[in-house]
Amino acid sequence: MLQRKGLSPLIATFLLIAFAIGLGVVVMSFGNTFYKADTPASCNGISLEPIKVTGRDEVCMAERNVRYMLMNRGADLNGIRMLMIGDSVMTTDLPKVGEGQVSQGNVDYNPSQYGQLRQIQFIPQVFDPATGQTMFCFDSLTTISSIRNC
Fold first, then answer.
1. Which domain holds residue 67?
2. Is residue 3 one of the residues assigned to a domain?
3. Contact, 65 vs 108, CB < 8 A?
4. DSSP letter string over 83-149?
5. In a domain, 117, yes or no
6. What predicted TM-score, i.e. pTM, was given to this entire model?
7. Is residue 11 part of a domain?
8. Which of 46, 42, 103 is nearest to 71 (CA)?
9. Residue 121: how many CB atoms within 10 A of its CB?
10. Is residue 90 part of a domain?
């Protein structure tokens, strides 16, 4: 009787791994056509910056208020999402601001509820005509990490 040997377990393992990797590549390439996390075209050129006076950002904490002054150097914004980060996150939406205009105001912030303020993020919002929706421009967010007292 002839003794026939199959593939050794080592070769079989390599073949299974190669097959799994190949299958993963195919699935990921199909999935990539259905999901695109691209920045909307309407976010191009968005620039939201804190106004500087004598070299200091005009974003500061005054008792229980956060004061801000931001210059919109890009396109018209449908609004700005403001995240105030302490031990937890407080979120507020700021009004529309046109191109070349200043957004300024005061926002109540309670340190006993949210913790000491450590960071503020401003996320521009634009209307995207391709989707008909307001979109966040996360690539254009402005982060303030050193918040001074006013």
1. 43-149
2. no
3. yes
4. EEESSSEEEEEEPPB-TT-EEEEEEE--HHHH-S--EEEEEEEEEETTTTEEEE-GGG-EEE---EE
5. yes
6. 0.71
7. no
8. 103
9. 18
10. yes
pLDDT tens string, the chain, 150 residues long: the values are: 556 666 677 788 888 898 889 888 877 777 655 555 555 667 888 888 999 888 888 899 988 899 999 999 888 899 999 999 999 999 999 999 999 899 999 999 988 899 889 999 999 998 888 788 888 988 888 999 988 888
Residues whose CB falls within 8 Å of the CB of residue 143, separated by 6 or more in sequence, listed in order: 119, 120, 121
Structure tokens at 131: 């989707």
Long-range contacts for 132-141 (Cβ within 8 Å, ≥24 apart)? 134/78, 134/79, 135/40, 135/42, 135/43, 136/81, 137/39, 137/40, 137/43, 137/46, 138/39, 139/39, 139/43, 140/43, 140/46, 140/47, 140/48, 140/74, 141/48
The residue assigned the tokens 């421009």 is: 137
- Whole-angstrom Cα distance, residue 6 to residue 121? 62
Look up the CATH number of the domain holding residue 64: 2.60.40.10
Cα 128 to Cα 135: distance, rounded to the nearest angstrom: 6
Indicate the number of domains in the chain. Answer: 1
